[in-house]
Amino acid sequence: MALSIADQIALDDALVAPADRLKIGKCNLRLSSDVTSKEATLQVVYDVLKLTPFYKAFQVTADAPEIYMQEFWASAYVHNRSVRFKMNNKKHIIGLEQFRDILQICPKVGNKKFVDPPLEKEILIFLASLGHSGDIRKITDVNVNKLHQPWRSFAAVINKCLSGTPSYDSLRLSQAQILWGMYNKKNVDYAYLLWEDFIFKIENKNTKKGSAMYYPRFTKLVVNYVMEKDPSIPRRNKVNWHYARDDPMFTTINVISRNETTQLYGAILPVALTNEDIRNSESYKEYYARASGTIHT
């Protein structure tokens, strides 16, 4: 017999009190598969990202009861680099390999080893080589808005869709390592970099506790994964669920302006990151003309 809404509310309140729940906000956005831009450089960025081994992480999503999302963040803690949490008051554990499966990216291929990305000192040299209109002595000095194109756009999309950073401005080491791996076409374990960001937020969730939920899209994926593995978890009659259609979509970057005088271009996009279709597109031709100095912003 189906529970009444009042009964379900009572059950939800027993799991996480309303006063302890987080706002499911806009961080960790989703990128539409058919996203386009009138800004040539941004369109090229979208096209190139589709060729990366971590592109699925921009799009993958799920439907999940909001109360289980709340319960995850209320109960989650890190133990031996795995995350332990409760769903419907039942204990669960996930680790990097489960997270890799959830995101559907970077599967291990035989005995092929992942390449370790550089640490901060080398990453800063790499970012400087791409163009950054400001001194960078440590990673906290890096500002997405000061990066030259197209890396400014790459960083901004990664920032909002994968790392869930509330601001476009900041760039964490893991995000810069994603850029490094992509630029150099290295076999980087991108799932590991995203996992480390995810568990960092769990470890520090009470340090600067805000009102917004971290990584709501990834949280839904974890909840959905556990529910698929354990059919005994109640579905709550599909009341108060967060659906894929509820995901805030990435539609534009507010630091991009077609006529902006600060639209600077650093290292040109390596040809190896493109394909013939991209190189033949009008967007790429316009981008390349701007980047090579044939036309000016």
Q: How would you sum up this structure, described in words?
A:
With 297 residues, the protein is mainly α. It has one domain. It is built from twelve helices and seven strands. It has helices spanning 5-15, 40-49, 56-59, 66-75, 96-103, 120-130, 151-161, 173-183, 190-203, 216-229, 276-279, 282-292, and strands spanning 30-31, 64-65, 77-79, 82-87, 90-94, 241-242, 249-250. The strands form three sheets. It has a three-stranded antiparallel β-sheet. It has a two-stranded parallel ribbon with strand order 1-7. A hairpin with a 2-residue loop joins β3 (77-79) and β4 (82-87). α4 (66-75) packs across α10 (216-229) and α7 (151-161) crosses α8 (173-183). The longest helix is centred in the middle third of the chain and has 14 residues, at 190-203. The model has no long low-confidence stretch (mean pLDDT 90).
